[in-house]
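TODO from last week: model Putative 5'-nucleotidase C-terminal domain-containing protein.
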Amino acid sequence: TDLHSWLSGRRHDPHLNATLGHAVSLVERLKEAGRRSRKDVFFFDNGDVNDGTGLSGIAQDHVGPIVSLMALAPYDALNIGNHELYQLNANGLVTGEACPITGLRDAGYIDRWGGRYLTSNVVWARTGEPVGSRYRVVRGEFGTRLLVFGFLYNMEDHCDAVEVQDVEATVGSSWFRGALQRHASATDAIVVLAHMDYRDELIDAIVRGIRAVAGGRMPVQVVAGHSHIRGWRRLDGFASAHEAGCKLDTVGLVSFDLPAPGRASVDFAHADVDGNTARLAEAAGFDEAGLLEPAGSAVNAALSSVRREMRLDAAVGCSDRRYRTWAPLGDKDSLWGFYAHKVLPRALLEPRDGRPRWAVVKTSALSYDIYEGPFTIDDAYTTSPFGNFWFSLEDLPGETLQALYDYLLTGPGPGQASVPQDRLPEYVATGPLQ
C-alpha cells in the first residue's frame, strides 16, 4: 500500500533496497510454493501510487512514468488512493480536471486492468459513473473465489474531476447490497481494499454492512493503508484488518484458512516483511541470490531504463551535511531550518522597495531527508515531491501577520497530533515580524 512511486529501492537507506521487481518476484515465489500445497496467492495494491520520488514528480500529471512500470506487476486487484485525486494546480484554487486520476484514465491504465481497478465510492463528477469498477470477483488457480471491494475514506479535498461518495452511504446503497446478495453465496471470502487507517471506524462500518447481508461467518480480510504505519486488529471472529507501512518499506502478507463447519472463528495470520531483498527472499524460502525470477527481472530492467531516460540519478548539487526532515527547527541538521532560513530568503523573499516579505509553509511539504554528498534530480523530488504554488498578499498590516502567526502555533490543524510540537510544528514561518 501507499507506494508513492518508491519503486526503485532507497539509495540512502541500504536496508530498504528492494524494488517493485523484488516484490513481484516474492509473489511469484509464493505462488510456486502455493502450487505445491494447492493454495491460492493473491496480489493487491491499495492506492497512492504517486507523489514521492522523481518517477512521479517529474511528470506533468504526476503518474506518466509510473503507468508502464505498475502495469508490469501481476496485481489481482488495485484500489484508488487520495493522492490520485489531488488537484495538481494550486490545491483546488485552479479549476478543471487537473489531477493524476485523469492522467491514469487517459493513459489507459484504468482500463488495462480489465475491471480490477476498484473504486467502490469514487465516481466521475460529470457522469456519476464509477472511475473504475465498484467490485470484482477474482479467482485463484485452485478455485478460491474472492469478492473484492475498493474503498477510499471520506475525502473532501479531492479534485474537480471526481466525487467521493460517503462510505457509510455507499455500504447502505442498493448496488452494494445487491453485489453481496448475488455473489456472497458463491464466494469463499471477501477482501476489502480500504485506503484508510486500519483503526478507522469506517472499516467497522463496512464490515457491519457486509455482515448484514452476507452473514456472520463470511471471512473478511481488510487491507488498510493511508496512514503509513504497520498495524493489525481483529474485527470479529471472522474478520481482520491489516496495514503494511508505505513506500515499499513493507510488503504485507496476510493469510487465513476457510472456516471449517462448527468453528467459532477463523485464524488470521499476518506478517510485515521489510522492503529488503534478504528479508523478501527469506519469506519466500530462498537465499537472497535466488529471489529474482524472470517477471521481477523484467520490472527491474524497465525501472532502470526509465530512470536513465529521466536522468533521475544525475547530480545537480552537493550537500555538506545530512538535513533531517523531523529535526527540531533550532538544530544544525534541521531540513526545515535550512529551508526557512537559507532557501526561502534567497529564492522567494528578496526584499522589494524595502518592504519585508514573509512566508508560511505547511511542514508536510518536505517529506524526505537531504543526505551528505551528491544531490540528484531524484533527491530533489523525494525531498519535495509536491507541486510548489505560492499565493501572494501585499501590504498586510503587522497585527494581521501576528494574529496569523499566533493561530498557526496554537490553532487546530489536521496534522498537529501526528508531530511532537517540541520538535516540529505543523507550519513554519520565515520573515521579519515587525
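Done. The longest helix spans residues 20-37.
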